[in-house]
Amino acid sequence: MHVDESHVGTGKTERAIVRSLRFPSRWLFAVERLEAITELATRIATLAEPGSSVKVVTIRSDAAERGFSVRREVEALPERYENGHVIALCTHEALLMSDLAGFADWHLVVDEVPNVLLTQEVQSKLDVNFFENNYVLDEVNVKWSRVTLTDAGRTINGSDLHQDDSHRHLRLFHQRVVRSDGDERAVLCNLKSWEQMQAGDVKWIWWSLFSVRELESFSTVRFLGNGFMSAVSTKMMKAWEPDVQWMPVSVPGDRQLIRRRVSVRYFSERRLAAKTLFESDRGREILAAIGAHVASEVPQNRFIWSSNDVAKPILASCLPMAAYLTPKQAGSSRWMHCTHAAMIYAAKPNPNVRSVLEAIGVEHDAWIETNELETVLQFVTRTSIRDVNSFEHATVYVFDARQADYLIRFFNTQEHIDADVAHVDLGLNFEREKPGPKVRAVSPQEALQKLMDRRAKKAASERKRRARRITAQPKEP
Q1: Which residue blocks in 169-228 are alpha helix, DSSP H?
Q2: Are 175 and 95 contained in the same domain?
Q3: CATH (domain of 313)
Q4: Nearest residue to 385 via CA among 226, 236, 223, 260
């Protein structure tokens, strides 16, 4: 597996495109987002020589009702294009759900770090009969069971689930279970029986890990991504497939990098970003103050911002919605004219996800680095920071000191960037509020423990009651 971790702005993706144009063969590019397919197709058309015979094939689906068609389109590529110069484009998700055994003599380029761990938390208290009819649980160990299909489950397809309002959210789960019937990518969940989902406020989780060995049929495989080898996805793949070799192919690039200044500003010294904070009354006050400050500092027409959904309404009352982007923007160059960015974002593993990470052997901090810190970095570097022809001063805003430290350590590795960092003191109170009563979803293990505790408490009370009755009985003369 070849890995290009070249610095931001040095042309990783462009070099891969040029290579695919200069060497006529069959190529498959996988990108993170649907929007990036269109961007990549445009870049290929721009870089192709006049009169080039290359055929660009885009595989995408904006319509969920198409069911499994995207996977089938990917799997059909080797048969449809046995010869000629072809560059096919798909998303990471389409690549990871497909059977790739037929791609001998094809070359694969994966732009940015793919999420090889599929997970989903589910609350399905009233769905016991549906799961019992369509899926089988086979215990793997004390925590996990493997999910497979019943005969009835094999008759269900993605379109069936899309047309069922109460089960549409299970499409990814069902697709993954169907796919696991023919490979080693097992689907595991933390239930021992489907009846467990009925207990209290249980939220259970399923997960499945992609094996890098499923890429073995390709003639060459190249991953592009800053910090790829330190990403949690790579750590998972290395942990589960220790014999696979990862070969660095990073180059400094031949672009002349213009020296520029980047300023990092953050608001919380000690308290870390968290969705629970953003949901609280104090958190909303903090978000409103941050939004007002950022709005007063940035040029409205050269600014982008993003946040968690729970923080978005408060920030949007101060910041222009026209400048809002979804958090995942890795690989995009559409916002290089912007000199300012704000990312008020948090991503921490909940108890269910932590149990999955422990099963795989990945530290919680590694998950946070990839899902929070690297997401923040990728977002703020969509700006003029990635424009090799820009010398303008860029300023980025993040929530806490740890996020700021992650950014500044990255910028300090870029020889053409002079970076500074500073705390913005808005006089805000970041101390934790005393939590009030709140009903929260629990894992099956927590639900079982609560049940056992209640039974133990009830048994103890019953023993005490019997003891008092015996003590109160009059003694015989």
Answers
A1: 171-180
A2: no
A3: 3.40.50.300
A4: 260
Q: What pLDDT, on a 0 to 100 scale, did the predictor assign at position 396? A: 98
| pLDDT for the residue 67 | 45
Please tell me whether the overall predicted TM-score, pTM, comes out greater than 0.90 for this model. Answer: no
Edge-to-edge strands of the sheet including 86-91? 55-58, 86-91, 26-31, 106-111, 220-224, 2-4, 247-248
Convert 267-281 to b/e letters by CB count within 10 Å (16 or more is b).
bbeebbbbbebbebe
- Does the CA dihedral 212-214-216-222 come out positive or negative? negative
Same domain, 224 and 98: yes
Q: 201 and 122, same structural domain?
A: yes
- Answer yes or no: are the C-beta atoms of 261 and 400 closer than 8 Å: no
Burial class, 222, CB count within 10 angstroms (exposed 0-12 / middle 13-18 / buried 19+): buried
Structural domain span for residue 350? 260-423
3-state SS, residue 390? coil
pLDDT of residue 346: 97
Same domain, 280 and 342: yes
Q: How far is CA 454 from the centre of its chain?
A: 37
* Residues 343, 196 contacting (CB under 8 angstroms): no
Looking only at the bridges linking them, the beta strands covering 135-139 and 145-149 are antiparallel
Alpha helices in 87-143 (DSSP H): 92-96, 128-134
Residues 277-298 pLDDT 10s: 999 999 999 999 999 999 999 9
Residue 437 carries which side chain, given as an amino acid letter?
P
Q: First and final CA of the chain: distance in angstroms? A: 91
346 and 228: one domain? Answer: no
- 137 falls within a domain: yes
Picking from 404, 423, 442, the residue at the C-terminal end of a domain is 423
Within this chain, do residues 107 and 122 fall inside the same structural domain, yes or no? no
Please tell me whether residues 289 and 185 are part of one structural domain. Answer: no
**CA separation for the pair 266, 396 (Å, rounded):** 9
| Number of domains, the chain | 3
Report the alpha-carbon distance of residue 117 to residue 233 in Å, rounded.
7
Structure tokens at 41: 């197709």
One domain, residues 205 and 222: no
* Interaxial angle between packed helices 351-360 and 232-240, expressed in degrees from 0 to 180 and rounded to the nearest 10: 40
